[in-house]
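S.,

As promised, the zinc ion run. Input:
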Amino acid sequence: MNELDEAKKRFLGAAGKIKATYNNEPDFKKLKLPLPPGARVYVFCEACGTQYAVDLTVANMLYFLMRQKDKKLPDLEDFSGHYLHVKCCAFCNAPDNAEVELRKITD
Ligand SMILES: [Zn+2]
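Predicted complex:
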């Protein structure tokens, strides 16, 4: 890495990450698309508007975070008709936030 790149990295911080704009709304048409092979549920990031699919392991991890807050939530293996709504993701520069919500995919 040259000096210019170093400086850029220093000043821009999360270089290469999507800039979080917050308050994005999911596109339900996209959430209704068939999941890629191996994926179990879609995740939508409110901060950057990115939608991505995760497998059951990641889905359960996110669901586990939700259950930390709401102990009454039932065991869940089937996420159909739902997506996970998050406040930050690995693709954007939103500050870390463990808040996850299971939301219904509506019209
Ligand atoms: Zn994001």
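Residues 45, 47-48, 50, 88-89, 91-92, 94 surround zinc ion (CB under 6 Å). The helical segments are 3-12, 28-31, 56-69.

- D.
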